[in-house]
Please model this.
Amino acid sequence: MMYKTATLFVVVFAFVGCDDEYSTVGGEIIENPSNLELEEVEVTAYSKKLNSVQTNNLSNHLLGVYNHPIYGQTTASILSQLSLPTNNPTFGVEPELDSVVLTIPYFSTEGDLDEDGNIQYALDSVYGNTPIKISLQESNYFLNTLDPEADFQDSQKYYSDQQELFEENLIGDVIYENDNFVPSSQAIVSYEENDEGEQDTITSGPALRIKLPVEYFEKKIIDKEGSSVLSNNNNFKNYLRGMFIKAEATAEDGTMMLFNLKAGDAGIELFYTTEVETTNDDGDTETLRDPRSYKLSFGSTIVNTFKGEYPGDVLQAIEESNEDSGAEKLFLNGGEGTMAVIELFESEEQIAAFRENEWLINEANLSFYVDQDFVAGIDEPSRLYLYDLDNNRIIADYSFARNFVQDGNENNPSTSLTSFSTPLEIDEDENGVRYKLNVTQHVSNIIEEEADNVRLGLAITQNINITNNAAVRNTEAVKFYPAMGIISPKGTVLHGNLSNNEEKRLKLRIYYTEINN
Model:
């Protein structure tokens, strides 16, 4: 067993925000110890490049191009079904389609009013600010809900590396193309006639909002009124199988955006007029054009695809790390990215030796120090997430933090569950310093023979409160990865267990009290 011991003298030690709760191993509980000792245990940690991750079970999706200073350029595109709001729609007498608009709201924050009294917005989850190319084209690839290879008993999985397959099934001309797209923080202003016949001004948050060709949707939707293809969504999803929103780089940098395609305002809206008869003030009948709209929502199956290659030196460093010795550096990156695997104890014999000590374990943690020589000045993720990699589930310390929330921040991804995972510590130069993960209950349970010594997975997370995992394929010994790590393009590099910096080398730190029998 490899470790070193130091003695710490303190008055009170707080364990996850509770002054008098401790775990004991093989002995009685002693409250408010007058001193603590520290044992540092060497762990094994190594990186794993994810080659293919499931993306059709995500709550949000990325679109665009992001050039990470370490991990290189990544392009994210989206394939989505469309869905009818109502079956068997009727478009009235002599409908004329005036315009078609695709809208996908940005995540944004409402700010102050400008000099003209207009609401100002700040965009959230937009990475970069240089132009990219985006295009829209019809897909003939049928997106199943259930997996036909499993006799339609399991949900169908679609993966991040399937863009080539999807592009092989694109049909017709490109519906929309913009070679110089940059997101705007300007509010969306529209006008709507009220009951008095006056135009009301409607202001909504900023969105990706583009006009699509009328002719295509007139033939595809309006002219199909009364046909079987619009009679229900099953028929419609086979008729218009999906839309592929493709992003492409126009320069080394770019812009990537996080979207919720299932938000209420998201979709493709058809604005048209139809003939209606009305009686004027003189009692005569007139035929007028009445404005109406019909909105297609994005469907239940939405797939994110990612394309990009890591720089050779980074990829080599990841491939050279291994489960036998660990690694000097740990690489973490979102998207179809990279995670770290942590093995806390090297053997059952090592665990048995801890049991014989009969210590009172006050805290156990893993401190992941940022390799500032490697990543200084980059936009790093604010939170990390640690989970049971072998069983695809949360660990005891996450459950403890979630069940005993006391700060009222349980719904705020940046500040909730800090007793389990502290936000990134920042130095005076705004560089990341350290992430700290609490594993007190997990370690205590292992030593008390209540839990297995499983491998732990470490990943970045867009939202620490959401623990859904996505399937992984074509990656040895990794079957699941946190979904919240897929929807962030951010990344970082941490000191591993073989780091040349002894003070920042990854270790399991166990704070304990000797029990006097």
